[in-house]
């Protein structure tokens, strides 16, 4: 009988991992998506959408569905889901680990300000700033509330209502080429790039573009997450999955 793996997804790495694991006929892979995006990129294997009802609901799902391995491959800022995953793993005695790319680090030539939250990032922007904000739609409110700055908010899915001028929404899905990022920053006269420290290569060209054009980076740092074993690449995740499925321990 195939061993069942549940991936808490929503990232490009989660999709790549699901594709690799689903190719193994001995594995039955399901990816769970939060359901916040109406047309997400779909991973291989079975896909479910929506929440579990907290840590207790997830633990019950792990037991009811006879899950052999839980993989937290959510966004680095999905702190509540990561906490629920760690707790559910311990309650259900199901092996669990996290797939999370290493964070970006400031490099020579960067003008980088760290912020603990979107609210702090919005507050640090000076009056008359022209900010390219790439944090998605869920936490864009503090930026759009400031009418003394100009925000170009780039996101995959739009807002329910049009923001007040001078703010604008730009709908686009990564990856973005470096030359396109440079062109965008120059033509829009961007002074600040606001982003979350997602890590990885897919969206890193915006950092190089900011470095090239002299744009100041406001980096929203990652929240503290539960102490789980962490894979820093899809390749590492595949190796850890193999070990844990063979009985290599579970939980934080």
Structural write-up:
This protein has 252 residues and is α/β, with parallel strands linked by helices. The protein is 31% helix and 23% strand. It contains eight helices and twelve strands. The protein has helices at residues 12-22, 54-64, 79-92, 118-124, 141-144, 178-187, 205-213, 234-245; strands at 3-8, 27-33, 46-49, 67-72, 96-99, 112-115, 130-134, 150-155, 168-171, 192-196, 216-220, 230-231. The strands form two sheets. The chain has a six-stranded parallel sheet, sandwiched between helices. A six-stranded parallel sheet has the order 6-11-10-7-8-9. The longest helix is centred in the middle third of the chain and has 14 residues, at 79-92. The two termini are 28 Å apart.
Topology:
Layout: E1 3-8, H1 12-22, E2 27-33, E3 46-49, H2 54-64, E4 67-72, H3 79-92, E5 96-99, E6 112-115, H4 118-124, E7 130-134, H5 141-144, E8 150-155, E9 168-171, H6 178-187, E10 192-196, H7 205-213, E11 216-220, E12 230-231, H8 234-245
Parallel strand pairs: 1-2, 1-4, 2-3, 4-5, 5-12, 6-11, 7-8, 7-10, 8-9, 10-11
Q: Could you give a short description of this structure?
A:
With 252 residues, the chain is of the alpha/beta class. It has helices spanning 12-22, 54-64, 79-92, 118-124, 141-144, 178-187, 205-213, 234-245, and strands spanning 3-8, 27-33, 46-49, 67-72, 96-99, 112-115, 130-134, 150-155, 168-171, 192-196, 216-220, 230-231. It is elongated and about 60 Å long.
